[in-house]
């Protein structure tokens, strides 16, 4: 007998933390992204993760901790377009699909696709 496991939707701060932490764990193991992750880690890793928690919490849960442009100083020395950003978007989307299902998960996937599309156009 096959048991189907229903994935949770992205509904809580804990879910946001799981999403970001899991995606960054994968990025740290990714051939293209790992050098960037290590560069960020040396400078301001905890601050970067906190900003990402705030960003995704704002985008998906409607919280107001994220201040527009909060991630800009953290990304100023990183490639935020091109192949690096596209890979990051792939990692993030794959993480959502593996960990979550439901309307908020779909919203996250759409948001990632929009960010990736904007990155290609920039």
Describe the structure.
This protein is mainly α and 122 residues long. The chain has 5 helices and no strands. The protein is globular and about 35 Å long. This is Group III truncated hemoglobin. InterPro entries: Globin-like_sf (IPR009050), Globin/Proto (IPR012292), Hemoglobin_trunc (IPR001486).
Total count of strands = 0
Task: Please state the second-level CATH architecture.
Answer: Orthogonal Bundle
Q: Count structural domains.
A: 1
The SSE string, one letter per element, is HHHHH
Q: Could you name the CATH class?
A: Mainly Alpha
Question: Can you count the helices?
Answer: 5
- Residue windows where pLDDT falls under 50 for at least 5 positions: none
How much β-strand is present in the residues? under 5%
Profile the largest sheet.
none
The amount of helix comes to: 55-70%
Overall shape: it is globular
State the end-to-end distance: 50 Å
Average pLDDT, all residues: 82
Any idea of the CATH topology? Globin-like
Class inferred from helices and paired strands: mainly alpha
The radius of gyration computed from the alpha-carbon positions, rounded to a whole number of angstroms, is 15 Å
The CATH superfamily title: Globins
């Amino acid at each position: 007998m096959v048991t189907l496991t229903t994935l949770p939707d992205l509904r809580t701060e804990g879910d946001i933390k799981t999403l970001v932490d899991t995606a960054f764990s994968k990025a740290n193991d990714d051939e293209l992204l790992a050098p960037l992750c290590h560069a960020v880690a040396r400078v301001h890793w905890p601050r970067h993760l906190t900003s990402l928690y705030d960003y995704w919490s704002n985008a998906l849960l409607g919280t107001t901790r994220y201040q527009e442009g909060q991630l800009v100083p953290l990304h100023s020395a990183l490639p935020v377009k091109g192949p690096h950003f596209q890979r990051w978007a792939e990692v993030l989307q794959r993480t959502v699909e593996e960990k979550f299902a439901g309307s908020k998960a779909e919203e996250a996937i759409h948001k990632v696709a929009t960010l990736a599309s904007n990155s290609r156009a920039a």
